[in-house]
Design a protein that fits this description.
41% helix, binds adenosine-5'-[phenylalaninyl-phosphate], 7-stranded mixed beta sheet, alpha+beta, 11 helices
């Protein structure tokens, strides 16, 4: 029995899990002290046997408790020591990391936002659900305008609609801010379209610069947008064509020399050597009148982000942006 009490003390003093395991075997193994003492019980008379068995069982319980307790304590100490030894060096380069620019659409959108915000344009996201005034009327698109047809626009029951372009953001900006105003409106827009270059949901960027009379003119618009097109497409030629938008006068569209054939003519540019990129113009007097601004001048522009992403990332079917095919992301 004395040897068993000594084992209990050794358990308290154990410093490693291996030492503890040795003590467990010494006590409970085939040839262990407890095994030996229990075997000896059979030689005792009935009374001594009962007394010794009780004493032995109490000692065994105490041993098992002390052992379990010590084991837990030593396990935490060893774990702590192992974790300290395994410190991660965050400064080491990991060549296995997978770098991605993200989805080509988000990447293109961020590039556009970066460019204009660095020039001092304030970012507006606007609301996706608009009323007819902000989406059409204020932009000089009266009730008979074809874009207002049910075939083109997603309407709700109460004359609300999913914005068909980001141009309503310029109306909100002019209604809520005092000129000078310099803003871009960015985000999803919706039309009833579906083919290789058109989807029901797509993204646009709108730009608006407004200041008192004669301070903003078409020359500023041309400079800002030509610089922007060179930032996105590099060394391309830019061509301006006159065009029509109800909310700008004069209106124009900018083309770039085809990035695939460098202007020689190919399938992508329909053999013309040019690619249409954006619409722009000076803000129409009617629009200023609709938002109650006087003695004022300004320019606006708008473009489709998918179109830019298709050209810069060489993707020929716009619908593939929305098909969540991981292979598309892996290609970037
Ligand atoms: C507009 O939406 C005008 N609000 C742009 C504007 C703003 C002009 C300010 C002048 C001043 P448009 O309908 O052409 O213009 O659309 C602009 C671009 O959106 C198109 O060139 C095209 O790239 C893109 N787009 C139009 N419909 C879709 C569609 N269904 N899917 C993908 N992109 C589309």
């Amino acid at each position: 029995m004395q040897a068993l009490h000594a084992l209990l003390i050794q358990i308290q003093n154990a410093t490693t899990l291996r030492e503890l395991e040795d003590l467990r075997l010494q006590a409970l193994g085939k040839k262990g002290l407890f095994t030996h003492q229990f075997a000896k019980l059979k030689d005792l008379d009935i009374q001594s046997k009962a007394r010794s068995a009780q004493e032995l069982n109490q000692l065994k319980d105490a041993f098992l408790n002390a052992h379990a307790h010590k084991k837990q304590e030593l396990q935490s100490v060893e774990l702590e020591a192992r974790l300290c030894a395994q410190k991660i060096d965050l400064t080491l380069a990991n060549t296995d990391l997978h770098f991605s620019l993200g989805h080509p659409l988000s990447y293109t959108k961020e590039r556009i936002i970066d460019y204009f915000t660095q020039l001092g344009f304030k970012l507006h996201l606007g609301a996706l659900v608009e009323d007819e005034f902000h989406n059409f009327d204020a932009l000089n698109m009266p009730a008979y305008h074809p874009a207002r047809d049910m075939q083109d626009t997603f309407y709700f029951k109460d004359h609300k609609l999913l914005r068909t372009h980001t141009s309503p953001t310029q109306i909100h900006a002019m209604q809520t801010q005092k000129p000078p105003i310099k803003m871009i409106g960015v985000g999803p827009t919706f039309r009833r379209d579906y083919d290789t270059t058109h989807t029901p949901m797509f993204h646009q960027v709108e730009g608006l610069v407004v200041d008192s009379t004669h301070k903003v003119h078409f020359g500023h618009l041309k400079q800002v947008l030509e610089d922007f097109l060179h930032y996105i497409f590099g060394d391309v030629r830019v061509r301006w064509r006159s065009s029509f938008f109800p909310f700008t006068e004069p209106s124009a569209e900018a083309d770039i020399s085809c990035v695939f054939c460098e202007g020689r003519g190919c399938k992508v540019c329909s053999q013309t050597g040019w690619l249409e990129i954006l619409g722009a113009g000076c803000v129409h007097a009617k629009v200023f009148e609709n938002v109650g601004l006087k003695d004022i001048s300004g320019y606006a522009f708008g473009l489709g982000i998918e179109r830019l992403a298709m050209l810069t990332c060489e993707i020929n079917d716009l619908r593939s942006f929305f098909e969540t095919d991981l292979r598309l992301l892996e290609a970037f």
